[in-house]
Amino acid sequence: MPLREPRFRSIASLMRNQLDTNFRALATAGFELAHSFLQLHSKGLCYRDIAFGNVFLDPGTGEILICDNDNVAVDGDTAPGILGTPRFMAPEIVLRQAVPSIQTDLYSLAVLLFYIFFVHHPLEGRRELAIHSFDLPAMTRLFGSEPLFIFDPDDDSNAPVPGAHDNALTYWPLYPRAFRALFTRAFTEGLRDAVHGRVREGEWRAAAIHLRDALFYCGACGSESCYDPGAGQRLSSGAGGAGPQICWNCQRPLQLPFRIKFPRHLVMLNHDTQLFPHHLDDQRQYDFSAAVAAVVRNPAQPDIWGLSNLSADTWTFHTVSNPAPQTVEPGRSLTLISGLFINFGKVEAEIRY
Prior knowledge:
Transferase(Phosphotransferase), domain 1; Tumour Suppressor Smad4; 3 domains; 6-stranded antiparallel β-sheet; 4-stranded antiparallel β-sheet; 11 helices; 17 strands; about 25% helix
C-alpha cells in the first residue's frame, strides 16, 4: 500500500478551519466517499470505523484517500474487533445492541458527511450544552438511547444554539433543500429504523453530483453559492418570500449564469464549467474521465459565451422560433441563448437563463 501523499490532509483539519477549500471540492469529496463505500459494501464488506482519522482530503480537488483498511470485515461478522469511533458509531452500536455492519457504516458515513458540509455533529445541539459532565452515561444518552437531530423538523428541543453551534447555523441554510432533506432523513428515520431508514451510498453519490452541478459564483466577491431549483431565485435559506438571490458572503445580489437542463441534471454554466459523459447519456455511470463539452468565451466578443463540443459526436440544436436543426461539429462551439435546445445524440437539453 503506498504512503499518503502530502497533498492529502486530515478531515479533522477541516473542522479546525485549517484547510483552504471550497464547496466544489467538498461536493467532490462527498461523491468520492459515497462511491468508495458503495464499492466496498457491494462486495459484502463493511469498514467498521468510518471517522476523521481514517479519511484524508485533497482540499484543492476534493479527492479522497481512505486508510486503515485493516478495519474491514465481512458484513455483520461477530468476531471481536473494533466497534467504531465515539460520535460516529450508530446508536445500536453505542447501546451494544448490534455489531458493525453495512447498516452501521451507513450511519457513520452520514455523520462524516454532515461534518464535512456543516462542520458540526448532527446530534450536538441544546441537549449537549445541558450536560455538565460529558462522561460515558451522558454520551450514551446523547448518541445512543436518546439521539435527536439538531434540525429535526418535528422536535426543536435539541436545536443548535447561537454562539455555541454557529457552524451548523451558518452552513445549513447555504445548501439546496433536497440536499438538506437527505440529512434530515438520515438523522430522523435513520435513527429510528436502522434497516430501512438510512440513506444509501448511491443517494449520497447522486446528491453530491447534483450539488457540484448547482454551484455558481458571485460576480462581486467570487464566492460559490448553490442554486436551488425548487426555490426559484432565492438562496436556499428556507426563509421563503420573493426577491433576488443574495450572496452569503458579501450580501450583494447574485446574477445567475446560463444553466442547462437535462432530464436528470441541472448544470450551472459558469466560466469554468465542463460537461462529462454522464451528463450526455442517462445510461452512463458517473464518468469524469474526459470532458465532452466546456463553456468558452467568444474571443472577439468577450461578453458572449458559448458551449464548445469536445466530444467526437456531432450535436444538433434549434430554438422554438427557428425549429430547423443546425449542427455543431466536434471542435466547434455554439452561442448560449435562453430557449436553445441541444440534442447531444442520446439526450436533449435546454439552455435557460
